[in-house]
Design brief:
The chain is of the alpha/beta class. Helices cover 34% and strands 31% of the residues.
Length: 250
């Protein structure tokens, strides 16, 4: 059984989610509720849950504030919010779980099942902890790092060492400045949303590049860029103008 705490400032939302969990997720027991950062923390400390269903916008703080105050995080987190932009922030910085209001029952069941299965793995990783570490890293100065989820767990890599990323079906292959490669189980779109804050640029459906490693651009219909490892990558014709404008502003 999984013990759960629901933190949401709307009473109706708390009751609906609790009802869904009771009806559709019989291996989840709702043991506590919170309506703010402070009451949510109190419920978490009292019940020591396995999973917290966490609204993001709440009075006097938000869900990310709660995670930082709960550090170290000893539970999984499922973000539940009506604001889709937060989903990008939550999901793209880690493997955290995210549900958009109104809650889709099938998505809720999938999130619970993924958490249940992962907790049974020997190399179980709490994704909320990954999120928290990424939030700390992205707010720090100097050489920023990101955590990349792999089949075995995760790797922590400096952003400055990533030369470019390559789409491989629903996976992404990272190419590093030391010629090392790493395949992760995320799409290139997912990676693009993570790295755009670090000035990475999508030149093609297959390529996301770190402009710091571009040594040459050659004209053509779309053109090509030559990376520091002498690999030539195509620039999609529909990305050419934006790409040249991007470099013109660097």
């Amino acid at each position: 059984m999984l013990k759960a705490v629901i933190v949401d400032d709307e009473k109706d939302s708390r009751e609906i989610l609790a009802g869904y969990l009771t009806r559709y997720c019989p291996d989840v027991t709702v043991c506590g509720f919170g309506e703010s950062v402070s009451t949510g923390l109190a419920a978490i400390r009292e019940h020591n849950p396995d999973v917290v269903f966490l609204d993001i916008e709440m009075p006097y703080g938000n869900g990310f504030d709660l995670l930082q105050k709960a550090d170290p995080v000893t539970f999984e987190t499922v973000f539940v919010t009506a604001f889709d932009s937060y989903g990008i922030q939550a999901l793209n910085q880690s493997a955290a779980y995210y549900l958009l209001k109104p809650i889709d029952i099938d998505e809720l069941v999938k999130a619970v099942e993924r958490i249940r299965q992962e907790r049974q793995r020997e190399d179980y990783l709490r994704h909320a902890s990954v999120l928290l570490e990424n939030m700390k890293s992205n707010g720090a100065t100097g050489n920023q790092k990101i955590m990349l989820p792999t089949m075995e767990g995760f790797e922590v890599v400096p952003v400055s060492t990533i030369m470019y990323c390559e789409a491989v079906d629903n996976f992404t292959r990272f190419h590093f400045d030391d010629r090392r490669e790493l395949l992760i189980c995320r799409t290139l779109k997912f990676v693009e949303d993570v790295l755009k804050a670090h000035s990475f640029f999508r030149i093609h459906r297959s390529w996301l590049i770190n402009p710091e490693f571009v040594i040459r651009y050659s004209k053509g219909k779309g053109g090509t860029v030559t990376m520091k490892n002498n690999r030539e990558l195509d620039v999609a014709p529909n990305r050419k103008a934006e790409f040249l404008d991007f470099f013109g502003r660097m």
